[in-house]
Amino acid sequence: MRTDERALHAYIDGEMDAAASLELEREMAHNPALRAAVDRLRELSAAVRAHADYHRAPARLRQPARRNVRTWALIPAFAAAVLVAFGAGFLLGRPAEDAALGDEVIASHVRATLGARLVDVASSDQHTVKPWLSARLPFSPPVEDFSAAGYPLAGGRLDYVGGQPVAVLVYKRRQHVIDVFVRPGGGESAAPAQARDGFNVERFARHGMRYWVVSDLNRQELDNFVALLAGASQ
Amino acid sequence: MLPHIDAAYNLARWLTRNDQDADDVLQEAMLRAFRFFGGLRGEARPWLLTIVRNACFSWLQANRPGDIELVDDDALESEASGPEALAAREIDRRRLNEALAALPVYLREALVLRELEDLSYKDIARVVGVPIGTVMSRLARGRRALAERLRPAAPAARLRVHK
Lengths: 234, 163
Hints:
By secondary structure, chain A is an alpha+beta fold. Chain A has helices at 5-12, 18-29, 32-51, 59-62, 69-72, 76-87, 96-114, 126-136, 219-232; strands at 121-122, 153-161, 164-173, 176-184, 194-196, 199-206, 209-215. Chain A has a 7-stranded antiparallel sheet, with helices on both faces. In chain A, β2 and β3 (164-173) form a beta hairpin. Chain A is elongated, with a radius of gyration of 27 Å. Chain B has helices at 5-16, 19-35, 44-63, 93-102, 105-116, 121-128, 132-150, 156-161. The chains are: A alpha+beta, B mainly alpha. At the A-B interface, α1, α3, α4 and β2 of A face α1, α2, α4, α5 and α7 of B.
């Protein structure tokens, strides 16, 4: 007999249809060499499954808020963002996690404004943005439009900050872009605003969600926006 | 997504053959995965593995092009050595891992996706971006190459006897 060798693999992998399997089994019944070949294949497959190392992700890849400069450097935009983040010496004296997350949200903001991908869903309608984000995230971020106050909603995108998915709501103020990062979590209800190389960063927590607000908008107008946002989600 | 982080890491680790490199490639790949989350169709695991796989190959191309050893996917039928050449008795763990790590990357990839990730031929074809027939050829060649490497003190002469 000269069965295609690949057919034997399909058979032991359970990828052969029933009719062809039956035919092969009938053939094996009176062909000991073929049966032995199939048995050896099964044995090899079982050995790989039993003995080949399964490399589980190390704990550090599961933990939020860890940085790895070598990886960021793979992407020029990241490198720029990391320089921005490191350029200012704000990390001293801050809780490490918040400092790292602050860096990451600035990095994400810089990346989005430098690149073309400011929003994944472009809409000024909160009833479009919210379901779009909810459908792609394990939580449902509050979404509100503040056009009336001069801060129109431009859309939303998804990002990955501190090892977890976050919703990013994108607002506009004249030519300025305001990124609002939202993800579930508690924390200080309000924290001192920070400024890093022209970016203002504010963070607060409301109703089980943590917010980071990043923009190159001036502090006064950003404060007003944050007040609106914090009020809206109450 | 995070439930598949082990599968993602395992694939990156087997393709790069190094912890630090797998770590680096995976961080970038996970970031990309989240950036393009909107493009998610169907099952999450093959989709994520596709991104990780492509990130690994870009990385290999840039950093270790010598590791990307091309395989002739049409060569299988012309080879005389059939499944009779396979023998996998008394396999020890260390030898098996070494043998798998030493396989050409396309064959190693097919075996890791099939045996360690338990993907169907269809999903492997999707992750690797080749037709199912090519997946079958690579699995057959990969298993045969593995069996040959695992043969106890394989004297070449003995291999020939089976033909």
